[in-house]
């Protein structure tokens, strides 16, 4: 323990060197705005700015990119709350309660909760990273395809709580998302499947951003315009010091869910190929499932903002762990970071802690500093973010539509995806009109490909033996995940049955 503290102290001193401190500030600020832009996100930000890092030493370079990654995780909440458009898949769950809070005049509270929860999640995960890096990396190696599929099943189980009491509609929405995730080429045989109308463009599949921006940008806007006859009254607040102190007082309300989301996010982030998106979705689902007031989720519950934000920031730190200790990227962003490290002449793996101790501990020290810098920037800029909501809705609507078009086209460079976004937006609007939850469909298209890949790898390796998933001798971790998933599905069903029984008893007594 004493050795770890000594090395950490040296890393912090390295992080406070003028060049490194400047790179932390620049990375956090750039990441904040990249994360807030629909269609960008940490993956694109790191990829675009990677060439710039060749102008500085490797330690300063990875400190800049890690700070940018951090900042983008924070920034994703901004467009989710102020515009209702998730900037990336990691910020989808933040929309569910962040947008209703903004519409009811609590945008500053939502942004403050997102910043503080992100800070708590980041801090907890960095401490865990510092203390348990080698053993956690070793444990993550035990996750094969069976365990990955069981974890995805666990994530899907948390979705059941996202659709309210109407579980059949929630399951239908998940299935719609899984169908859309299957469009394109079969991952094993290479045969095209679900290529609608034999259009060649569908062979590339339906991208997540196309679906998310279509449903949350176009679909929600059409829904809002219909139900308000174009006259949307968003209560704009004046951000004062008194309101800021009042918002800080709400921390105790979401501290338990934030702590749970931080631990869950870090663990899920350490798993190769999992990343921050499943972590944030699972954290939101668990927060709603075990809340004393689950009906308030989706209507502006501050815990619904804090839980996913804590999880996705914790997962971003967690995903660095397998990259540093094993050379296995834990997320798409860390895959780009891994490529950068190899270009800089560094070989990630178990020996990196021994051969490049200054580099590793300088990076860990910079994470602590970046966490403080990002939360300070985020809280300081809240008045600017809230000003977005002060625009008249007649101005805001075309801006949102333009952002949707530019966000999709800039990401895919295909007009086909822009038209597809409009069609999916119309589909999302119809689902809302028919009272079907849209969130599970969006989440299913994110996790569908991960679940399919791990399922098919598992079945190939076990020669089609389905019982291998619940074999305690071979895959005890998978069995535990599946049992927890069954419990999570059964819990809301049991609550619904008990509520109906109570209602029928009250009716008979009345």
Number of helices: 21
What portion of residues is helical? over 70%
Q: Pick out the low-confidence regions.
A: none
The secondary-structure element order is HHHHHHHHEEHHHHHHHHHHHHH
Instruction: Describe the main β-sheet briefly.
Output: 2 strands, antiparallel
Task: Give the DSSP E fraction (strand runs of 2 or more residues).
Answer: under 5%
What's the overall average pLDDT, rounded? Answer: 80
What would the principal axes of the Cα set say about the shape? Answer: globular
Number of strands: 2
Structural class computed from helices and strand pairing: mainly alpha
Radius of gyration in whole Å, from Cα?
Answer: 22 Å
- Widest sheet: strand order? 1-2
The termini sit apart by: 65 Å
Number of domains: 1
Question: What are the salient characteristics of this protein?
Answer:
single chain; 510 residues; 73% helix
Give me the secondary-structure topology.
Layout: H1 2-15, H2 18-36, H3 42-49, H4 58-82, H5 92-103, H6 107-140, H7 145-159, H8 167-181, E1 184-185, E2 192-193, H9 208-228, H10 241-248, H11 251-270, H12 276-289, H13 303-318, H14 320-326, H15 332-343, H16 352-355, H17 357-387, H18 393-412, H19 415-433, H20 439-461, H21 476-509
Antiparallel strand pairs: 1-2
Helix pairs in contact: 1-17, 2-4, 2-17, 3-4, 3-15, 4-5, 4-6, 4-13, 4-15, 4-17, 5-6, 5-13, 6-10, 6-11, 6-13, 6-14, 6-17, 7-12, 7-20, 7-21, 8-20, 9-18, 9-19, 11-12, 11-13, 12-13, 18-19
